Amino acid sequence: xxxxxxxxxxxxxxLCISNITINNLAESIFRLSSSxxxxxxxxxxxxxxxxxxxxxxxxxxxxxxxWEVSPFIVRRPSTSLVEDDIFSSFTKSLNYKESSYSxxxxxxxxxxxxxxxxxxxxxxxxxxxxxxxELGCPIIYQQDLRVLRTEKQSKREMHFFPENLxxxxxxxxxxxxxxxxxxCEEACKEGYTIAIRGMEFRFASIAAxxxxxxxxxxxxxxxxxxxxxxxxxxxxxxxxxxxxVFVCQLFGNKQWTVFSQPNYQLPRLYDPLDSQQYxxxxxxxSVCRKFFLRExxxxxxxxxxxxxxxxxxxxxxxxxxxSVHITFGIEVEPLFEWAGFAHVALQRWNQNKKxxxxxxxxxxxxxxNVITVNLLHAMIELIGAxxxxxxxxCLVGALSLPxxxxxxxxxxxxxxxxxxxxxxxxESWFLEALRMVEVAIEKKDLFQGMRWLxxxxxxxxxxxxxxxxxxxxxxxxxxxxxxxxxxxxEAAFMQxxxxxxxxxxxxxxxxxxxxxxxxxxxxxxxxxxxxxxxxCN
Length: 537
Prior knowledge:
The protein has 537 residues and is of the alpha+beta class. Helices cover 39% and strands 12% of the residues. The chain has 2 domains: 6-116 and 125-331, Cupin (Jelly Rolls, Sandwich); 336-504, no CATH class. It has 17 helices and 13 strands. The longest helix has 30 residues, at 506-535. The protein starts with 5 loop residues before the first helix and ends with a helix. Its EC number is 1.14.11.-.
């Protein structure tokens, strides 16, 4: 299954009597292994020392000074021990030589496609149901790998396999054949970079590093891409990412240029990323920092910072060395931004506050509560569009339970939470929220990005026929009655906003947030386990 092209050879590769296809076999392997750890965890201290520096407080210093703020480089001391290197087993498995690209074809032949799992998919069985006919298929161009270079004059990216970019075939996967794989060595000799996505799904040693980094940053998962770049060439053109990256130089050298950030607002994952607004900003190219990475060095590039990288080697011919580096991407899902934590806080407070007695309230009070709480959700989105703190990564998932109030991370996260609540209290206005909800109802896209909130609704209590935990999409039916009593509605909005900001507790929210975090982490871990078992590395 792994060494051939299953789509081409399926008729000849039916299992003798049982008539089981490769897809059936791949699904069975995936199911059996998804809940069994496929890699040994790494000590967090070992990863911290390798990525962030040798001093005991290097990680804390980085988080408080550089995280999502500025580029940062860690030079690996020449005296550091090879046996302590978290990448040593991976680099040994590649078995690359100074001037040979032969390891690329042997590596790619063992790969199958890592089909994408939905960002909000929390049931691995649903994922398997959707992809069961494609599981075990060959790697797909653009999805799993790219072979490209940037022309020096035009600064435009050129692909070695341009036929795989035909827009007419966008609905048809561009499967990479054995012949294509064998051509990759030729591509490297012509100056093309091999860019491979999803290395954490293909090598257990890389998965272990990615998993530890995810835990350190309080995220369900971390992605890993690998880049092989020939001497004196450039792979990707200047660009910026919607996620932070840690560049780990494994072999050879590479020159990086990171430009200043013209936009103070961090780009958000899954939002359309208009790279030009980050590349064309005022003085964006007048201020830059250059970093020359040698083997063992690590470079951090925050999301939204334009960057490019080239290999330079004064040697010629067989003496010139190529570059190999892996980037670990900290992809922050909307739920795990601070805006997401604020939404969880509001939902948690609304569920836990004392419910009014149905016999002693006005018939419309339940309706007012339902709409008002969701108007506050709208205000969180509005404030977050102008305040960059709301888009920063929330690291509460990295906190250990029970909470240690002396821990620097706990103090840091609670300080940010208090800032958000104060911001919501001072800048939440009834008419602005009302207009936002009206527009969203007209566009039929009311809070589509917050569908995950329903996971917090464990109870379905009702007040005068209106659900206390009414789903966001049901607001449309209640909204006209709310508008008819706008004066009363505004008074209810101000009252509930004040009560929420006065009563909400950081410690109470952590439990609900961690519950969601663990659900997302479990699904991602199952996916990693299943994919690693199919790669047998």
